[in-house]
Amino acid sequence: MKIIAVIPARYEASRFPAKLMQMLGDKTVITTTYKNVVETGLFDEVFVATDSEIIFEEIVKNGGKAVMTGQHETGSDRIAEAVQNIDCDIVINVQGDEPFLKLEPLRQLIDVFKDDENQEISLASLKIKLTEKEEIENPNNVKVITDNNGFALYFSRSVIPFHREVSYEVSYFKHIGVYAFRKHALLQFSKLEMKPLEISEKIECIRYLEYGMKIKLIETNFIGVGIDTPEDLEKARKLI
Asked: What whole-number distance in Å separates Cα of residue 189 and Cα of residue 207?
């Protein structure tokens, strides 16, 4: 299989504009993410897909690969445009605001497709267990519930499952926005109309579920810092 990684990158993020151009140590957030993905050595090609000339020039001047796209509602739609004429089998979507992603979680996602002999899985992604009440209730943390085989049942910014039976302990999982697609499923996704649940939650994975596609979730212990707010940026700077 030919496996590539694409990092969708918007300059005007709604919650934290220009966050990808903020400095982390001696590099910007987007350049840090790009270089970390390249250094895993897992991919035949890595590039940034963006509608921003500022981000495009930032990547190119630092020796990276970037492609300009039109404006899109979701990162997956942006990646679909970027890869439609690229010969590949699996596309890994790494969020530009996840600069500390490590090799092992990416390898786990790739292995999902190597083990999927019947090619039933459209998309694979990561989840991590949440234990702190504040984190569980934070709507910026997208929660996911799965069936016994690890396939997604639903994603939500609300607390799911609702803990009504207090005598029974439940686990909560945060969805980490790193996706691995079969190319044909990604291209199909981009042609599908948004449905009410995706529009309401603003979670693009829900579109796959609303159209009956299978999403495999892999549990990881990877703890990164997704940079959604200025406070997240400060946490990331402390890690640097």
From this structure: 8
213, 121 Cβ separation under 8 angstroms: no
Shortest CA distance to 33 belongs to which of 43, 47, 44? 47
Quick one: which of 5, 175, 32 has its CA closest to 107? 5
Tell me if 30 sits within 8 A of 73, measured CB to CB: no
Assess whether pLDDT exceeds 90 at residue 130: yes
Q: What is the 3-state secondary structure (H, E, C) of the chain?
A: CCEEEEEEECCCCCCCCCHHHCEECCEEHHHHHHHHHHHCCCCCEEEEEECCHHHHHHHHHCCCCEEECCCCCCHHHHHHHHHCCCCCCEEEEECCCCCCCCHHHHHHHHHHHHCCCCCCCCEEEEEEEECCHHHHHCCCCCEEEECCCCEEEEEECCCCCCCCCCCCCCCEEEEEEEEEEEHHHHHHHHHCCCCHHHHHHCCCHHHHHHCCCCEEEEECCCCCCCCCCHHHHHHHHHHC
On average, the pLDDT of the chain sits at 91
Question: pTM here?
Answer: 0.83
Report yes or no: 59 and 67 within 8 Å, Cβ to Cβ: no
Pairing verdict, β 3-9 and 90-94: parallel
Structure tokens at 227: 């940079």
For 101-114, write each residue's pLDDT tens digit.
888 989 999 999 98
Of 200, 189, 160, nearest to 74 by C-alpha is: 189
Task: Kindly state the tokens that stand for 4.
Answer: 């590539």
Residues contacting 83, CB < 8 A, separation 6+ = 4, 6, 91, 183, 186, 187
